Task: inverse folding
């Protein structure tokens, strides 16, 4: 089974996709996480991607398509895969369809998280992650016990380089211009379920499980 989770930056895609994958025992493939790992390791791909990511722009289609298709082929034996953050453009959606048609495993469901722009700005502005164990925090919704330190491992909390106000605005514009058409593409294909992405995380998880 193949599930895609779509949503604007700050919609909670990463957290909810990981929870859904755990609940269904599926593999969770997040292109943003893969690209950040490439940047951290200083690979050729990471060096190419870094400036696009910091600005809040999309990394060129060809590079991302090649990376995710290779990773999906390596996960062929899994019962199911959740794609998080891919596809983000129409060419990516078409390339994914083409690759899946070849192996006879189409996309079963596309879950699109809907969150208002005011709420997205609020969520993104307070977002921090532990630099050691990657536990996520939010200054307003889930603050650490000691400012700047992880409750679990004591690691230093850092903000994503693309969570500054200028890059956040750019990421929201990029979503509207390049990713929103992908929602329409899957609606037309009859695979889309729109999910209310506001409210308590447990409730959002319940809605996603019910729609998956
Ligand atoms: P995310 O963690 O999903 O918010 O992604 C962080 C950044 O990684 C994005 O702002 C893009 O620069 C890049 N990125 C992630 N997924 C894609 C994709 N499917 N296509 C192009 N760029 C991507």
Result:
């Amino acid at each position: 089974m193949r599930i895609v989770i779509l949503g604007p930056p700050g919609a909670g895609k990463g957290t909810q996709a990981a929870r859904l994958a755990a609940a269904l025992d599926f593999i969770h493939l997040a292109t943003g996480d893969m690209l950040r790992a490439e940047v951290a390791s200083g690979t050729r791909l990471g060096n190419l991607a870094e400036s696009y990511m910091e600005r809040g722009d999309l990394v060129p289609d060809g590079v991302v398509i090649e990376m995710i298709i290779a990773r999906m082929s390596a996960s062929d034996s899994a019962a199911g895969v959740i794609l998080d953050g891919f596809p983000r453009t129409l060419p990516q959606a078409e390339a994914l369809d083409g690759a899946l048609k070849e192996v006879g495993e189409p996309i079963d469901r596309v879950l699109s998280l809907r969150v208002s722009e005011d709420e997205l700005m609020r969520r993104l502005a307070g977002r921090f992650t532990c630099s050691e164990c990657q536990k996520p925090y939010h200054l307003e919704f889930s603050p650490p016990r000691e400012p700047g330190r992880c409750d679990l491992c004591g690691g230093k909390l850092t903000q994503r380089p693309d969570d500054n106000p200028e890059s956040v605005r750019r990421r929201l514009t990029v979503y509207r211009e390049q990713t929103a058409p992908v929602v329409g593409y899957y609606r037309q294909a009859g695979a889309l379920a729109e999910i209310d992405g506001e409210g308590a995380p447990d409730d959002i998880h319940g809605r996603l499980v019910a729609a998956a």
Remarks:
- Residues 9, 31-32, 35, 52-53, 56-59, 64, 85-86, 88, 92, 162, 171 surround adenosine monophosphate (CB under 6 Å).
- The mean pLDDT is 93.
